[in-house]
Design brief:
The structure is a homotrimer. By secondary structure, chain A is α/β, with parallel strands linked by helices. Chain A contains 17 helices and eight strands.
């Protein structure tokens, strides 16, 4: 029917190199501010059920086997070999890897070799700024080094990503901050800061966004579901409307990550602004059996050339598997239904499936070019 | 099964009288702040696919034929004859036409004759005010002429419509502005204004709404999806709650146009306030293959006597066709499923279908009466 | 297939003891600020259609019979016997009854005997405070009596409920108010108050919430759809994020009632905070034929051990019936589909169904214990 032989995971992280027990594995299935409630488990979530559906068969077990049995088998196989079996079974052919999260995670090179796939790096702006701050003595050197670092990173990376929405909320002033404002904010931040201190200052977050925009590389913005910290409506992508307007026509694409539960807002922005794209990431992995329904909601307003698959996976190769399998099944079901209802032609459905699975990402990130490097 | 032989399009615009090339046609398929992104086309949207599904057969082509082939056929037939074939094939029996948009668009009379249907006029309040301002010398004459114009327009029109939500956002103070406030705002606006200048002053926008309310004619308020300019949440119909409360019991009905992606909010207001109605317009045309799903969401809270069909079409008769066909198919599918599941009786489903397609609009706009004039 | 032999209705009210005419019955089918619009009826709503589907057969009539026929039969049977037939036909095995609404409503004891079920009381905090105010002479005695009343009520009740969200909106300061602040607010409220006057002061509403939190009993918070008064977005459960964070780890569970149309936000909070739960109540009764679709949306993010069935019924035993029947059918359809698609295993589906129908409520409210008292 509707197949997607190529699959570009346009936003994910690496996988953990350490063996995991039941508890540490379970902790990666949810984004919670605490442990599971008494009498409950994170396995009893759409993500948990999706992992139990798709992953056991890749390790030679029956689907939906109990978590303890799956974890035992995973340890028996070993974390490296399990990672190989899972990633190679995911169907993902290219990984774009955000290397900005802490932990003993595999990088793009290892993702590529383990997964028998291509891989490219996405640079997290806030981490870059923190690293520059760790090594810069003065405000002037910090700001100079920051600009150089961003532009230097742009040479090898395929995209920048910003968690300004998670750190401060997306209700940031849309225009670039003035030089004096930036210098003042940098001075205050550096003065208070200990090595490794995180960047949450809104002026510096905006400054970073605008340096990234100037680089011309696509800029991925976290919106909607993300870290549990802030009130979720502070990450409503609709708050990016004025930033989108301010960056229109500059030649840099914006990619709204995640979006859910505001995915219709993200799709709307992708429809209104030529340089704005919407991602399907975390919302599929988090909603599991509902992935097709959520995908269909995104497909209401988002132009078909403006939508990008990702897994948003972090830590567990199981999440890359689940992201890819849920996406493929959801896409095939949704588009297949529309073909069956005569709403779409089969040829159109196949073409659009190819765009969302890989074609749009290749075009936005210039991947064919980079493959030839 | 569930049929709707009468179809009142309770909100649409006229169609363009000029021949269209591929690019100008395509531009009418989206509401974007720019051209399609490089490598993409507005034909690759739900609206584009819906046009390609429903319209080619009306011009003697196979469904889903390529856009260039459809446009070639359209030019071969000629814009007037194509308009006739399309409008007559839409199944719409009455058009309520907002005549307040610029461009070489057909008016209600021409819509009626081209479409072999009835047609009535909807007056756009802001345009009326701008026209009055063009010909009034003083604040006093402007305000007097404005009141007279609104009341005069109410004689022949079936409704007023306001784009205050698009011009300023729906977070307007709910009560009528005081006379001094209105005079001050009018003075400032007229002093700064050049001929043709648009009305965006919130005091005057509210003043207009209240003159319209006093006329007793139904008042249609743009909400949700509309022009791309403002942040979409500034057009959330929930912002009209206090205005709805302020106008309750005055005898004037409010019709919330579009609504999507806040259509559940619009349905809620239609449930809470006896004089508030919800429209199905743009959301069906914009979401295409998802029209049944969106319609079903509106049918969660909206009382069945408070929901009105429209196409929201503008410029292309293809959009009237798509609005009508998507609506009929969606309604038949949604209600038919509920009948098949025994949730609804068939008799109820047929009766409700008739209400949403035409009966509610006839009652709200007094259409039987006007047909007898 | 997927059955739920036990059903704990974790939030409802009693039923009216008086015979009802067509008009008074109809008035209970909607939450409106006025009578039905001219030419419409509240029977033409999802709730009305659901009542006509499920209730006539319990009184010996065919489903979907006309409202007048159903009401005639109901009067023929008599209000007490009809209540018995309806409640016993609902399938509900335990009622948790909020006794804080005015009117001649049955209490938990009568619900238990009429429905051949268990029943427990939920205490409405604001009513309790009003009753204490009616009998307290000074600010000091009011505050002392209030604390004693809440702690006394906690002995026999299974939960507290608060309508702070309906009275003032959920955008309350998250921390407990200071003692001086509380004393000042109490003084002002008591000075202005006549006997029976309602509590809307935000400081006292917060004070009440925090006394309740200290009791350790689960605290149910109204959110989303409720009384028609306030703007619905003032009851968006996302506004409770900071209160949830402030009460984390204190050992008291929060249950977000209703939620719709913000049920995805409620589900998100239930996923993020170990002590937060989400309710399915009013949204199923209000959306009728769409109950399965709405339930499925809640099941996207809500962990399966964090979701609780309720009917939210008030006044009419028909609403308890409809709540229970819609829930069972929706749950069976949604989970059954996922099993059919191989997304879930049948064993998991049956287990999760049991949790949402009864198991989660038993655990949260300690119902097995209380049954043994």
């Amino acid at each position: 029917m509707i197949e997607t032989p190529c699959l570009v995971d346009q936003y994910c992280h690496g996988t953990l190199r350490t063996e995991l027990g039941l508890g540490t594995f379970e902790a990666h299935l949810a984004r919670s501010e605490g442990p599971p409630a008494p009498g409950t488990t994170f396995f009893d979530t759409q993500t948990g059920f999706a992992v139990r559906r798709w992953c056991p068969p890749l390790l030679g077990l029956e689907p939906h086997c109990p978590p303890a049995r799956y974890l035992a088998r995973r340890r028996e196989v070993g974390v490296l070999e399990a990672g190989r079996m899972l990633l190679r079974g995911s169907g993902i052919t290219t990984y774009l890897v955000d290397t900005g999260l802490p932990g003993d995670l595999t990088g793009p090179g290892e993702m590529a070799s383990t997964g028998a796939a291509e891989a490219h790096e996405i640079i997290r702006l806030e981490l870059l700024a923190e690293q520059v701050a760790d090594t810069s003595g003065t405000v002037e050197s910090f700001l100079t080094n920051l600009a150089e670092s961003v532009h230097g990173a742009a040479v090898n990376a395929v995209a920048f990503t910003s968690v300004a929405g998670v750190r401060h909320g997306l209700a940031l002033a849309p225009e670039p901050p003035g030089p004096g404002e930036v210098r003042g904010a940098a001075g205050r931040w550096l003065a208070d800061r200990k090595v490794g201190g995180t960047l949450t200052d809104p002026v510096l977050l905006r400054h970073l966004l605008w340096i990234a925009v100037a680089s011309g590389l696509p800029l991925q913005l976290h919106a909607g579901l993300g870290e549990p910290g802030p009130r979720i409506d502070s990450a409503d992508p609709v708050l990016l409307t004025d930033f989108a307007r301010a960056t229109a026509g500059l030649g840099t694409d914006l990619v709204l990550l995640h979006g859910y539960p505001y995915h219709r807002h993200a799709a709307h922005l992708a429809a209104v602004f030529p340089h704005v794209y919407a991602d399907l990431g975390a919302e599929l992995v988090r909603t599991g059996a509902r992935a097709a329904a959520v995908l269909a909601e995104v497909l209401e307003l988002a132009p078909f050339g403006k939508l990008l698959f990702s897994s948003g996976a972090h830590g567990l190769p199981e999440l890359h598997v689940v992201g890819a399998r849920l996406f493929r099944e959801a896409l095939s079901r949704v588009l297949g239904t529309w073909v069956a209802e005569s709403s779409w032609s089969l040829a159109d459905a196949q073409r659009v499936a190819g765009l969302i699975a890989a074609g749009n990402a290749r075009r936005v990130y210039g991947l064919e070019q980079s493959a030839q490097r």
